[in-house]
Amino acid sequence: MTLKNIPNHLEKYIVKQNYDRYNVIDHQVWKFIMQISIPFFKKHAHKSYFEGLEKTGITKNKIPLIKKMDEKLAKFGWGAVPVRGFIPPWDFMKFQALGVLPIACDMRSSKNLTYTPAPDIVHESAGHSPIIINDEYAYYLKEYGRIALNATFNEDDQRIYRAIRKLSDLKENIYASPNEIEKAEKALIDVRNNQNEPSEATLLSRLHWWTVEYGLIGDIDNPKIYGAGLLSSVGESQNCLDSKVKKLPFSIDCIKYNYDITEQQPQLFVAKDFSALTRVLHEFEKTMSYNSCDKIEKFKDENIIKINNEEPQNFIDEKIMNLYENFEGDNFDLDKTMNILNKEYPDEWLLRFKIYRRYYNQGGNWLKHLRNYLTNYRLNSDMNSAILRGLKIVENG
Fold it and tell me: How many structural domains compose the chain?
């Protein structure tokens, strides 16, 4: 088991995946994401993706067990451990260099279906793990981790990390005010704009972003997706293939491009193959000073570790939870449920989608009204596109 091989200084980030904490809505959000993602990625993701889902323990109808993923990944020389939230990048790279995938336990909400501001189990498992079955890509990840551990970093890197962490925490906090979030977004922009000469760690983080998170591969005119940020984004994965998003040939020049975690990316880089990633990485390695490894160990923030390891509060509306549970059981009352949704939960789209999925071929005006609600929910948004994809899959059988 991977846990036995984790150095003491990294054990502090590992938590227990409290599987019983996931409720029926969490599993339904996961199921919906997989339902609309797999057909799309069969066509638009690298060929390793679909095969990698099963081989790395990604379940389709419920949130996966990280312990099972660890067992599956062991066959490829990798492992997985449960963590919570952001891990400082210098320690994340230590996990990666060891061939260990840290998987955030938290699950995004139905309101954040197309985008989540913090690491969650959709991104970390369904996004990162499938492509690991590709030997060349897996080698790149370990090499990246090894090289990143030797990168110099500075106070700007620490300030950027803390600003990202704060913004992420606020966006996940249902009690955070729009004003607080706006201030945190501005603070992140300011710290990036006031950054001095980018450090080696900053330049490597850009390389990581444009490959591991947002990478495309193959023919520049018809690229395939392999980046985890795209593989776990219901919205941007579809938008990124549009001609409005520039496709640039992948080269070391990608480190000249900064990125914004709060926005969809205006350009992406297309690698010819996975071996190109390692070639560029080694090209960058030759420029590194390799004289400040001790600095990496000096950055300590026990408060971050404490926050990471705390169980998040579970904000559950018992009434809506009962509606979901009744839908799955023998006591489901369709008329009563629709009346409650229409009167009390105008923004609850996922249960409405499940109801439509069960009854869509029975006809009737109420179904027309329900479909109209779903097709117009957050019109012209990524969420709307995701629901339309779901409806198309349902109605096409």
Answer: 3
